[in-house]
Design goal:
heterodimer; A: 509 residues; alpha/beta; Diaminopimelate Epimerase, Chain A, domain 1; TIM Barrel; 2 domains; 8-stranded mixed beta sheet; 6-stranded mixed beta sheet; 19 helices; 20 strands; 23% strand; globular; B: 44 residues; mainly beta; two-stranded antiparallel sheet; 0% helix; elongated; binds zinc ion
Chain lengths: 509, 44
């Protein structure tokens, strides 16, 4: 492969390439494997960077285990420190006691610091009394599109969906220096994982000038597609500025949230939860709101992507999309997650060329408890990657990091073998919805690019496209199932520039 | 749905016995790799 000016000018057999070209820099890949740089089609870049500085609660075994981790964290803080403590990654579905925890242990541990700990999916938090006081939350307060949990007339500290914002609003915005540090840390991990482009699903306009200036200064090399959150200020901003597009930054539209997540019973279902017959979940805003947003976005030729997990949320959004798209079109509107889709609604995807943006590792993370929520019939409508691919013709793949691990290799493995990182289950979870290796690779490259209107410049290694690529030590298309997760990213290139080198040593072991 | 195929360019390293061509100088030449271009133009 020959590269000039950051772009690919030719690919071909080694012999012919060496006859035709000589590089200022020549790299012998020693028989290794090269793919287009991986694209994560659904991620939260800043949140991931910030999570690297928060208490990591992933894999905790119980609520006492969470408290133990926090007690250890407290030891490193000075006694008069009263700043916010954030943590993330707990999941009560993985604990022996699967009920939501309650905050009493947090209050005794941190009487003076406000504490907020996000559930793995980011759609629920537990906050201590100090944080609840700052947010002004009282027992029996209510909020549209959210829940404030109460037990025996007292707050438990658990807040769901829109209620979480009451607390998050109180956390001081990161300074420019803090945000920069978080972004650059996040970027380094992403390069090491082979990612060269990210689709950031929901930021505020305030971040855009910072991203742009870091990219222009050359410190932020990650290519970013950013959708702005559903807020008036963001709509005004993009309307005034128009679609932003540089080689590194692309801001073509908006990310909307229709509902919450299955794990916290915030996903909006057509029938009640199988493990709570009184609950259907809920939409985060009114249908009229989503309709008006779609109307605005359509009118101004922006792109729309909506988080929809429950089959009712998915149906609501598909109907609204269809109302404006009216059949074949090239607007590339997306449903993010499309986690549970009623079979009667599948046709909307095909009819209106709506994109389903999927996260294969969600299936293998949720498989342990999703059936409890949905029951044995409805689970068949969930995580239906192959079915949706058949509807859409292509399927962008991502992780939703920091909800899941950033690794595209894990995405590939989960997509193809429907197993989690521990190799469970051997036969694959709902294996009929597995993708082929080829489809999974396309989902992390060209299809992700297409879902972002970026398939002309990236997603494949063709003359004229960005020289964004990765070198791995295993052949993802051929390697044994058991070897896939052992795949190492040896080098990552963006625009022909090496941004990651596994060892600095020769790449052969 | 249109089927797309990933083109595998198997770049095997042979001993080169080639006469002198005028070579174009480029920034970077990476060789001796199996490249999955994920290219759809080479279809069919
Ligand atoms: Zn997300």
């Amino acid at each position: 492969m020959a590269i000039e000016g950051g772009k690919i000018i030719a690919t071909g057999e080694t012999k012919q390439m060496q006859q035709a070209y000589v590089g200022n820099l020549n790299i012998d890949a020693q028989g290794k494997y090269i793919y287009p740089g991986f694209i994560d089609a659904h991620a939260h870049f800043l949140a991931y960077g910030q999570s690297l500085g928060a208490v990591d609660l992933k894999g905790t075994k119980s609520w006492p285990d969470v408290l133990k981790k926090l007690a250890a964290f407290k030891k490193n803080k000075s006694g008069n420190d009263t700043t916010w403590i954030t943590g993330q990654g707990w999941d009560q579905n993985d604990w022996p006691d699967k009920r939501f925890p309650s905050k009493s242990g947090l209050d005794s541990l941190f009487p003076n610091n406000p504490v907020v700990l996000s559930r793995i999916d980011g759609h629920a938090v537990i906050a201590n009394q100090k944080a609840l006081d700052l947010a002004g939350i009282r027992p029996y307060d209510s909020i549209k599109g959210g829940e404030i949990l109460v037990q025996d007339s007292a707050l438990t500290g658990v807040l769901i969906d829109n209620a979480t914002q009451l607390v998050f609003k109180q956390i001081p915005m990161p300074t420019e220096a803090e945000a920069t540090e978080a972004l650059l840390k996040a970027q380094q991990n992403c390069f090491a994982a082979g990612l060269t482009s990210l689709q950031d699903m929901g930021e505020d306009t305030i971040l855009i000038p910072l991203l742009d200036s870091l990219q222009k200064a050359g410190s932020l090399k990650m290519r970013l597609y950013v959708l702005l959150l559903d807020k008036k200020a963001n709509f005004d901003y993009l309307l005034k500025k128009g679609i932003i597009k540089t080689d590194y930054l692309h801001v073509p539209g908006f990310k909307v949230f229709a509902d919450g997540a299955l794990g916290s019973r915030g996903a909006c279902l057509l029938q009640p939860y199988s493990d709570d017959s009184t609950s259907y979940g809920f939409l985060l805003s009114s249908k009229a709101h989503y309709d008006s947003v779609a109307k605005f976005i359509y009118k101004h030729h922006f792109q729309m992507a909506t988080h929809a997990i429950g089959d009712s949320a998915v149906r609501t959004m598909l109907k609204i999309y269809a109302k404006y798209l009216k059949g074949p079109n090239d607007r590339r509107w997306r449903i993010e997650h499309a986690q549970i889709v009623n079979p009667a609604d599948l046709h909307y995807f095909k009819d209106n060329q709506i994109i389903a943006s999927m996260q294969p590792t969600h299936a293998t993370s949720d498989m342990y408890w999703a059936e409890t929520r949905l029951g044995p019939e409805r689970i068949k409508n969930a995580y239906i990657n192959k079915t949706l691919l058949e509807q859409c013709g292509y399927l962008p793949l991502g992780t939703d990091f920091p909800v899941e691990d950033i690794s595209p290799i894990k995405t590939f493995y989960a997509a193809v073998f429907r197993r989690d990182a521990s190799g469970f289950p051997k036969d694959g979870f709902q294996i009929e919805n597995a993708l082929t290796r080829q489809e999974a690779l396309q989902g992390m490259t060209i299809w992700a690019a297409k879902a972002a209107f970026e398939d002309k410049e990236k997603g494949s290694l063709e003359p004229g496209k960005f020289a964004d690529f990765v070198v791995t030590d295993k052949d993802l298309m051929q390697a044994d199932v058991e070897d896939i997760l052992k795949t190492r990213i040896l080098m990552t290139f963006i625009g022909g520039q090496k941004v990651f080198d596994r060892s600095g040593r020769p790449i052969l072991r | 749905m249109c089927t797309r195929r990933i083109i595998v360019l198997s770049a095997l390293c042979f001993a080169l016995l080639t006469s002198c061509h005028t070579k174009k100088t480029v920034d970077l030449l990476i060789y001796n790799a199996t490249i999955y271009t994920v290219d759809s133009n080479f279809l069919k």
